[in-house]
Amino acid sequence: MTPPPIRVGGFQAMSLCDWPGQIVATVFCQGCPWDCPYCHNPQLIPPRPETPADCPDWDAILDLLQDRRGLLDGVVFSGGEPTLQRGLPDAIGQVRRMGFRIGLHTAGPYPGRLARVLPLLDWVGFDIKSGKADYDRVTRVKGSGARAHASLRLLLASGVDHETRTTYDPALLDNAALARLRAELAGLGLDRHKMQPCRTTGTRPRDP
Ligand code: SF4
């Protein structure tokens, strides 16, 4: 039996909010190299946990998508961080060949892997954590800012339709950090960037 191209940690058969203006199914990819305190899917951070009992396997997801051809506009690969998994281009290719448009949610930790999947994508939701200098405080991983900004530049140069957004957590980004972020966004010409408030329900407890 051929192994599945990606490890899936969740599946949403229909979503109206994962790709603005599109009716999509969402595949939640398992694993993320970062560890943001406000993460709403902390169960998706470990690369190889137990597969949740209610999560269909990859073949079952393909069957479900087959049944929904003509009913959905596209399929979004979300996470976790989808580009963590080397099999992502194969998984996207399988879904594309079924006729679906493809969206990707990413925070850009792997610029090289993002570059490989960009030609397969119709839309990207790109999560900008902060200005480059403040990334490590948000992701809790050293050097994350340079990788994320390299990915962002690749996305902007690709011409792929996209949305950029930042989850704003005042415990992580003070006024000076916000000013640095705004200056970088302006420098990149991102005048329609979305700032979204951080919700604490569903996140892990923080250190006092
Ligand atoms: S990058 Fe996203 S999935 Fe990864 S820890 Fe941060 S919020 Fe969670």
Summarize, please.
It contains 6 helices and 7 strands. It binds iron/sulfur cluster (SF4).
How would you explain this protein's 3D organization?
The protein is α/β, with parallel strands linked by helices. The protein has one domain (8-197): TIM Barrel (Alpha-Beta Barrel). The model has no long low-confidence stretch (mean pLDDT 93). The chain has a seven-stranded mixed sheet. It is 29% helix and 20% strand. Bound molecules: iron/sulfur cluster. Iron/sulfur cluster (SF4) is lined by residues 32, 34-36, 39, 41, 45, 79-81, 107.
List the helices and strands and how they pair.
Elements: E1 8-15, E2 24-29, H1 58-67, E3 74-78, H2 88-97, E4 101-106, H3 111-117, E5 123-127, H4 135-139, H5 144-158, E6 161-168, H6 175-188, E7 194-197
Parallel strand pairs: 2-3, 3-4, 4-5, 5-6, 6-7
Antiparallel strand pairs: 1-2
Helix pairs in contact: 3-5
Bound molecules: iron/sulfur cluster.
Residues 32, 34-36, 39, 41, 45, 79-81, 107 line the site of iron/sulfur cluster (SF4).
